[in-house]
Amino acid sequence: MAPKLSKSDKKIAYDSKLCQFIDEYTQILVVFADNVGSKQLQNIRKGLRGDSVVLMGKNTMMKRSVRIHAEKTGNQAILNLISLLVGNVGLIFTKGDLKEVSEEVAKYKVGAPARVGLVAPIDVVVPPGNTGLDPSQTSFFQVLNIPTKINKGTVEIITPVELIKKGDKVGSSEAALLAKLGIRPFSYGLIVTSVYDNGTVFSPEVLDMTEEDLIEKFALGVSMVTSLSLAISYPTLAAAPHMFINAYKNALAIAVETDYSFPQAEKVKEFLADPSKFLVAAAPAAAAAGDAAPAAAKEEVKKDEPEEESDEDMGLGLFD
After folding, report:
1. pTM of the model as a whole
2. Which part of the chain is the Large ribosomal subunit protein uL10-like insertion domain (predicted)?
3. What is the mean pLDDT of each run of 10 residues along the chain (320 residues)?
4. Taking every pair of C-alpha atoms in the chain, what is the biggest distance, in angstroms?
């Protein structure tokens, strides 16, 4: 039988384990662990086994170990974790893809009843329909102002009712009614609250971003840089094409109104001097479009016409 460790020995062992994980892993998911049972946590550990490891502990112990590790190794970036260790949280150290690990953790949510005094994480709505309860149970519904009727000897809820609002505490009447109806409205599991990656801390929503989202945000950034550059007349790579076009338009406008000219303006001035040239230039394009339409129509007619059968194909001559 292994000797029982003292509190100081346990702290030393925990500190050693946490520092080892920090050295070995560069990616950490900070997870919120309220209402997560030991069996559920065991299943999560099994699901992540291979490239990830879950470490729970008291916040004071985790903060102490992080500070000790930063002092010993000079890794100051790891101190960014300390501000995230608030509430009932744990750490998932991983070498895998952060999005995949986060999705795997989310699979292990389990349903839970509404216990008295629990703060509701979501709105609880009781759906309409037959409850299967006998008429003697109508008092529960009356206390909660839920409209009901008796249908075939059972209580039936007429309309959907918002029984508990998110953030409200569950009362004894609400808990008793949900238990009678067999409704387990809440589900609990590890919830990723923050992501640590090589010294950088960011929100878990970043993991859900797709390549299209990144392209959209990049395009928006380029658009904002272009607008600012044009507004203050400061040349940038994004604004340069617009500046050149605007400069050409200004120079062209001056050339059209004055005797000044340059090669790129000659053609424009020539057309403005003789507007009939616009019609001449447009005629070939219109003719090409007109020729294309009959040709397409003829081709369509040819496709519709059946091929004539030859007498020789039947093996008979004209006078046979």
Report:
1. 0.60
2. 114-183
3. 70 88 91 86 87 90 90 89 90 90 87 83 87 83 84 87 87 85 85 90 83 85 89 86 86 83 79 72 61 55 51 43
4. 120
